[in-house]
Amino acid sequence: MITISELRKVYRQGKREIVALDGVSLSVPKGAVHGIIGHSGAGKSTLVRCLTLLDRPTSGSVEINGVELSSVGDKEIRQARRRVGMVFQHANLLDSRTAGGNVAHPLELVGTPKAQIDESVARLLGLVGLAGFENAYPAQLSGGQRQRVGIARALAADPDVLLCDEPTSALDPGTTDEILDLIKELTVRLQLTVLIITHEMNVVKRVCDSVSLLEAGRIAEHGSLKEISEHAESRLAQALLPLPAVAEAPGQTVLDIMFSTETVHTPVLSSLARHFDIDVNVLSGSIEPIGGQQFGRLRIGLTEATDVAAVVQYLEEAGASVARPGSDTGEALQ
């Protein structure tokens, strides 16, 4: 559904060139929810502007549902933008318009008949759980309700893709979960393809099927949540399954172990201890549901006399992924 190929965006300031996107390639299938995560300055905002055609890419292509958007002419740009519904961080509603008026606005801009607008507004507000709120102004709504209006407005043009730019960062945790559950529900009901730009790993864990780490304008890591969570060396995996800080373990070799659904409930450590006749010190651990499956991460300490290579081989043959912990840069993505 979404295919981004070798997307580059270069800004020029006098004689200086700033590369904001440097060959981003990404494919998201129809009906999937994909997260883009990264620090400030990684290129997330530029990617949003290129996907919504607010900025023209310097090179590369953006294709949605088989239609190449990045090369459309100025006359066709409004129609092209209708393929992408946009949900903003702060809803960006028009304060002078009611909830119904905000949802109606994009339909009015393209000359939709009034009777059809009224029907669409009622249907869309009902779809996001705000039936009967047509005449409420933004100031009369909670933050979560305003974001629901923003989602209804984004769906007004019947887009192929819903692009959400930090859709929950201004909301409290409870409301965040409600909005994310709504997005997931709409994805299934309307067969939407959703791209969520976020800096919050909890958003990715709750609603996304796959995730990409954007770093300095490039995709540094990418995969389904299951694929990511099975690789202990991945920074995204470390961020998906963060570990509490622990004291150093002098005289021990420390290993990080990732367990997938197939091994998370098996007694791997006890069998490891019996097999090698060693003590295994569990320093910290975490087990969480990710993408509808259970994943675990353990940090263990082994005495220096242990044959570490043999232990790693044993664990990997048991279905775990093993890495030596470094600076835990993945935790910094939280």
From TrEMBL:
Ranges of residues in domain ABC transporter: 2-241
Translocase listed as a keyword: yes
GO molecular function terms listed in the Swiss-Prot or TrEMBL record: ATP binding
Keywords noted in UniProt: Amino-acid transport, ATP-binding, Cell membrane, Membrane, Nucleotide-binding, Translocase, Transport
Pfam families named in the record: ABC_tran, NIL
This protein's name: D-methionine transport system ATP-binding protein
Species classification: Bacteria, Bacillati, Actinomycetota, Actinomycetes, Micrococcales
